[in-house]
Prior knowledge:
- Keywords: Isomerase.
- One of its GO terms (biological process) is chorismate metabolic process.
- The protein is mainly α.
- The chain contains three helices and no strands.
- The mean pLDDT is 96.
Amino acid sequence: MENMSDVRIQVDRIDSEIVQLLSQRFACMTAAARIKGDRDTVRDEDRKSQVIQNVKDMAAQHGVPVPMVAAIWEMLVETSISYEFQKWDSIRDD
């Protein structure tokens, strides 16, 4: 990358890939909502901690700022849980 145009092209490409991966992640949340039989199992604090720790470990391995990645994943996981609750409820309201 030699100039800001090059940087922006790469950022846009990466953002597109991230959104595609988020689509896959949210599809997993839809599947989890379908599979989980009890609404109380949607929120799993042990699993949440495990996911965030896994990502922190990966961030450290790749030289990415761990606190920033942890903050992003905190929001991602909480958003995923909220989405899963919505899906869980809508599946059972039908």
